[in-house]
Amino acid sequence: MIVLDYRDKRPLNEQVAEKIMNLIAQGGLSPGEKLPSVRNLALDLSVNPNTVQRAYAALEEKGYITTITGRGNYVSDEGNWKAGLKSEMITEVKVVVGKAKSAGIKLDEALACVREVFERD
Amino acid sequence: MIVLDYRDKRPLNEQVAEKIMNLIAQGGLSPGEKLPSVRNLALDLSVNPNTVQRAYAALEEKGYITTITGRGNYVSDEGNWKAGLKSEMITEVKVVVGKAKSAGIKLDEALACVREVFERD
DNA sequence: ACAAGTGTATTAAATGTCTTAATACAGTTA
DNA sequence: TAACTGTATTAAGACATTTAATACACTTGT
Question: What residues in A contact B103, CB-CB < 8 Å?
Answer without folding.
Answer: 25, 85-86, 89
